[in-house]
Amino acid sequence: MTEESIGAPVDVRVVRLAGGDSHLWLDPALEVYITAMGYPRGIEGQRRALWREHVSRPGWSAYGAVASVDADRLHGSRLRRSAAVQSLQQRRLGRAGTREDVLVGIAYGYRGAPDQWWNQQLRLGLRQAGCPADHAAHLLADYFELTELHVHPDAQGHGIGRLLLTQLLTDRPEARVLLSTPEVPHEENRAWSLYRRFGFGDVLRNFRFSGDPRPFAFLGRDLPLPVTDARAHRDSRPPVGNH
User: Fold this and answer.
1) Can you tell me the distance from the alpha carbon of 110 to that of 16, in angstroms, rounded to the nearest whole number?
2) Is 63 a catalytic residue?
3) pLDDT number for residue 4
4) Which of 50, 101, 214, 231 is the right S-S partner for 89, CB 3.0 to 4.6 Å?
């Protein structure tokens, strides 16, 4: 387990999540995902089944950001109590805390493969954009797919996404990491800012996935992360203020 403290009044620990413990952390992670993305309630079942299937894929890895929060700060907040997260932390840390442990961030991914839907969508988009077949084959031959990276809105803006991304990508054996993210005007949101700071470049822009009308961008960068950059991202511990 890796711990990162980013200061009072909220301490955040970045912890590695085990697939065998998904019954403990999956529902809190979906709560973060739905809230961060602004999705309507009711899609949890479909996403739960998909995320469980992802856990079994080769190279799967996940990290969570767990905040230890005074119980009275939860009243009126979008952060929700989660006994499941508390149980996970007691099991991992061997202690029972006096404060509430709440999952505030989730990041996971796995090794890409030709039989995966996302891979097939990117391959189609590259072909439609006129990308040479040998270049597309090289790009998709050895990569880690950054599938999900989300921070709860009440905890955004304090470096939690940076910590999650650093932990997830450090020591990956693949040649590169690829991801997709919704297009936004002038790339002006926290996700785009984070990916650009990490050196992600354009792979394919304004692609529309089957069944989703929004345009998406595919971004990528070579691995491994430079040692100095990974250390700087990991050791940066900005304070978290009041929500």
Assistant:
1) 14
2) no
3) 39
4) 101
